[in-house]
Design brief:
The protein contains three helices and six strands; from the N terminus they run αβββαββαβ. The chain has about 140 residues and is of the alpha+beta class.
Length: about 140
């Protein structure tokens, strides 16, 4: 049996055509998408951390040499309310007096340290939050990045 039987190739057709040396297998479309992605990463790295945007986790640096600023540590607070507990406005007022700012999104509040902090400072803030929310019948979760 002839495996190529029944296949008709045009005259002058080569089964394998050699690639030009400059062709590395990427199309212009793929290269364009790669450049857009690199630009997006740099944009998020430079402006996202300082403008409140989304910073890609790929570049999680504590210092941005392009702007000459130190990115501060932030502590996020998520709260679950109970219908028999304190009202959301009461809780927000107490947390604002501690320096927390309300957020819209996944987390409810943020505490911006504005600098690098060590674990003991974060634990002291957690103790203050615990004492402030005691008796208000709410659950909470703290995350520091």
């Amino acid at each position: 049996m002839n495996p190529g039987a029944g296949l008709h190739r045009p005259v002058g057709f080569q089964a394998t055509s050699p690639r030009p040396r400059w062709d590395c297998g990427f199309s212009a479309k793929v290269l364009g998408l790669m450049l857009i992605y690199v630009f997006w990463l740099l944009w998020g790295w430079v402006f996202g951390a300082y403008g409140g945007g989304v910073v890609p986790k790929l570049f999680n640096f504590a210092f941005c040499p392009l702007l000459g600023k130190v990115m501060g540590v932030k502590t996020y607070l998520t709260i679950w309310f109970y219908s028999e507990g304190a009202t959301p406005m009461e809780v927000v007022e107490k947390l604002r007096s501690m320096g927390f700012e309300p957020l819209r999104g996944y987390h409810d509040h943020v505490y911006d340290w504005g600098r690098k902090v060590d674990l003991m400072e974060v634990l002291q803030l957690a103790n203050k939050v615990h004492e402030t929310l005691r008796g208000m019948k709410v659950f909470y979760k703290l995350e520091t990045e």
